[in-house]
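User: Please fill in residues for this 279-position structure.
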C-alpha cells in the first residue's frame, strides 16, 4: 500500500494561516516503496487527486510546505513529484510561481515533446524528416478540404487568404497570416489532434522559419501559392490542390535549407543531401 489516510487530530496537518492556502483534503502519508523514488510515489498520489477532482484544473497547487506536511515527505520529494507531473503535461510550472493544475489535451501532450524534438532537428537531415511529415499531412488535409470543406470552411479560408494578401510587404504580419492560413486546413476535419500537431510544427520549426529569407517578392510568391490552394479547394479539385501544396512547401523547404548555409540557387525542390527518400 503506497499511502494511508489519517483522521487522527494528532497527526493531521495544522491549520493554515489566513494568508496561506489550506492543505488539500486529508493528510496522505506516503510510505516508501523499495525500488521506487519517493518523488514518483508522491507524483502518483497527486495525479490521482487531479483525476478525482480533489485538485481542480486551473487552480494552483498547494505550496511546497503544505505538500510536505500533507504527504509527510521532504522538499526534495515534493519537487521531484512536481517535475514529474510537469513533464507529463499535468502541471504548468513557472519560476517563482506555484504550479497550476492543467487538464491534459493533445496540445499539452505534444508540447511536452518539444525539448526532445528540438534536439532531433538540430541539423538539416533532422529538420527535413520533420518537414516532410508536414508536407505529407498537409497534402492529405488539402485533399480532404477539397472534398469535404463546408461553406463556413470556405469562408474562413477566404478570410485567411485576404488577411495574407493585405500583409504582403510586412514580414512579421505576413508570417503570422501565413501560419494562420495553413492552420485553417488543420481545423477543417474537426479532429482536435490536427490543430495540436500544427501548433507543434510552428513551435518546433519556428527557429528556422525566423531565419529564412524574407521580402515582398517572397511574400507575393507564397501568397500566390495560398491562392492556388484556395481556388483548387473551391473547385473541389483535390489533385490540383495537392500539387500546389506540395510545390509550395517544397519551395519553402529550399528557404529553410538556407538556415543551414545551403544555397537555394543550387536547385529548387532538391532534398537535403544524405537524406533517404521516404517515398
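Assistant: Residues filled in for all 279 positions:
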Amino acid at each position: 500500500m503506497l499511502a494511508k489516510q489519517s483522521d487522527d487530530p494528532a497527526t493531521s496537518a495544522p491549520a493554515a494561516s489566513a494568508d496561506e492556502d489550506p492543505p488539500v483534503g486529508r493528510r496522505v502519508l506516503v510510505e516508501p516503496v523499495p525500488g521506487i523514488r519517493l518523488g514518483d510515489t508522491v507524483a502518483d498520489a497527486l495525479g490521482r487527486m487531479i483525476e478525482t477532482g480533489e485538485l481542480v484544473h486551473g487552480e494552483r497547487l498547494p505550496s511546497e510546505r503544505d505538500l510536505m506536511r500533507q504527504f509527510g515527505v521532504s522538499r526534495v520529494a515534493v519537487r521531484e513529484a512536481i517535475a514529474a507531473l510537469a513533464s507529463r503535461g499535468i502541471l504548468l510550472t513557472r519560476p517563482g510561481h506555484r504550479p497550476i493544475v492543467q487538464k491534459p489535451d493533445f496540445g499539452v501532450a505534444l508540447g511536452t515533446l518539444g525539448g526532445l524534438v528540438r534536439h532531433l532537428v538540430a541539423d538539416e537531415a533532422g529538420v527535413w524528416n520533420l518537414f516532410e511529415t508536414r508536407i505529407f499531412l498537409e497534402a492529405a488535409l488539402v485533399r480532404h478540404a477539397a472534398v469535404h470543406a463546408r461553406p463556413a470552411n470556405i469562408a474562413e479560408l477566404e478570410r485567411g487568404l485576404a488577411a495574407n494578401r493585405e500583409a504582403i510587404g510586412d514580414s512579421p504580419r505576413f508570417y503570422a497570416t501565413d501560419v494562420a492560413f495553413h492552420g485553417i486546413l488543420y481545423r477543417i476535419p474537426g479532429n482536435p489532434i490536427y490543430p495540436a500537431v500544427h501548433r507543434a510544427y510552428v513551435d518546433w520549426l519556428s527557429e528556422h522559419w525566423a531565419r529564412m529569407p524574407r521580402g515582398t517578392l517572397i511574400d507575393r510568391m507564397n501568397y500566390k501559392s495560398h491562392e492556388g490552394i484556395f481556388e483548387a479547394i473551391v473547385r473541389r479539385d483535390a489533385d490540383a490542390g495537392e500539387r500546389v501544396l506540395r510545390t509550395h512547401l517544397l519551395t519553402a523547404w529550399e528557404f529553410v535549407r538556407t538556415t543551414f548555409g545551403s544555397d537555394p540557387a543550387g536547385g529548387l525542390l532538391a532534398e537535403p543531401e544524405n537524406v533517404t527518400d521516404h517515398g
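For context: Residues 128 and 271 are 8 Å apart (CA to CA).
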